Amino acid sequence: MNIFQPQRIYLHLAIIALVLLSLLTYSYSYHTDMIRTAVNLVEAAERIKAEITTAHIRLEDIINGYRHKDDMDDVRQRLGQADWFVQSVLHGGVRGEETFTPVPDAKLQQQFQKLGDQLVLLGKIAEKRFETAMTSATGTSIYIDQEYEAHFTAVLAQAEEVEENVHQYLDRKTQIYRLILLIRVFIILSLFVMAIVLIHRHRRYLLEHTQQLENEINDRKLAEQALRKNEEMLSKILNTTPDSVMISRRGDGRIMYVNPAFTRMLKYTEEEAFGKTISELDLWTSKKERKAMLSKLDETSKVNDFEAEFYTRDNKILPGSLAASFIELNGEKCVLSVVHDITGRKQVQEGIRRAYHIQQALAEIMRISLQPETLQETLVRALDIILSSPAFTMLKEGALFITGDNGTGKELVARWLH
C-alpha cells in the first residue's frame, strides 16, 4: 500500500496539527503559569519586605513617643500581612481577585519557610519590646533593643535573600521558556516542512493516481469497444449461421434466445418462441431422447453430435444433430444448444442404402439366371427377389413384359400380388 494515499496523508496532517496544537497549548499554559507565578512571587517578596520595614518604622515611632500606643495594632497588622504572603507562597491563598499558587521550587519553599519562622519570632520580640516600653518608667532595655534589632536585621536580610532567589528562580524559568520557544519554533518549522513534503507527495500521488485512472478509463473504453465488436461479430455469426441456435434455462427449459436460423428451420417466429418452454412448444419428437440428452449434459457439461428429430410448427419432422453446453446468462444456468439440419445427410444415407440393396438384388437375379430353370420360373423367382428387397418395399404389385424377336409383343404375367 502506498503510504501517500489520501487516508495516510490526512492522518499524517492530522497528527501534525495535533502535535502543533498540543505544543502551542503547553507553551501557552507554561507562559501563563510563569507570568502568574512571577507576579505572585515578586509581589510577595516586595510586600513582605515593605510590610516588615513599615512595621519596624511604626514600632520605632511608638517606642520614641512619636505615635500613640494604639498604633501597635498597625504594627501587628503589618507583620501579619507579611506572614500571610509567606504562607500564600508556601500553601497558596486568595486575596480579592488575586490567587496565589504554592511555589513548586523546593529551595524557595525552604527559604520562605525560614522567613516565616523568623517573622513569628520577630513579632514576639516586638510585642515584648512594646510591653516593656509601656510598663517601664525608663523605657525599653538595651538588651531587648539589641535582640530586636538583631532579629529585624536578620529578617530583613532573609527577605532580601528571598527576593534575590525569587528573581533567580524567575530567570531560570525565563530561560526554560526561551528554550521552549526555540524548541517550539524548531518543531513548528519541522512540522511545516513535513507538511509541505506530505502535501507535495500527496499532490504527486494524486497526479499519478489521476493518470492511472485515465489509463484505466482508456483501457476500459478500449475493452468496451472490443467487447462491442465481439458482440457485433457474435451477433453476425448467430444471425448468419445456418444452424439453429437456442438458449434456454436449465431449470424450467424456458427459452431466452433464438437466432434467425431457428425461426427458418422450425417455422416459429422469435416472438412465438421467446418466453415459452421447450415442452410448451413440443419441439422434441421423443421426450425420452431429450431426457437422455439432458442427463448426458449434466454428467459431462457438454454434448456433441446427438442425433434427434424435432417437430416444426407445421408438424413436420426435422432430423438434426445437436450440440449443447452450459452457460451462465444473467446469473442463471442456461443451456446453449445448436441444431444442424441433417435432412440432406439422411437422404444421402438412404440413397446409399437403397443402392446397396438394389445391387444385392441384381446380384441374386444374376445368380438364379444361371440355373437350369424355365423362363417362367426364373422370372417368378426374380420378381420375388425384387419385391423382398428393402429397396422396393413400397411396391404393392409387379408385372413383367417380354417382347419377341419378330416385334410381336407377347405379355407374360409372371405373378399378380395383392
Provide a descriptive summary of the structure in words.
The chain is of the alpha+beta class and 418 residues long. Helices cover 66% and strands 13% of the residues. It is built from ten helices and nine strands. It has helices at residues 6-63, 72-91, 106-135, 142-240, 260-266, 270-273, 278-281, 287-300, 343-369, 375-388, and strands at residues 93-95, 98-100, 244-249, 255-258, 302-311, 317-329, 332-341, 402-403, 409-410. A five-stranded antiparallel beta sheet has the order 4-3-7-6-5. A two-stranded antiparallel sheet has the order 1-2. Strands 8-9 form a two-stranded antiparallel sheet. Helix 2 packs antiparallel against helix 3 (106-135) and helix 3 (106-135) packs antiparallel against helix 4 (142-240). Residues 394-398 and 400-418 have low confidence and may be disordered.
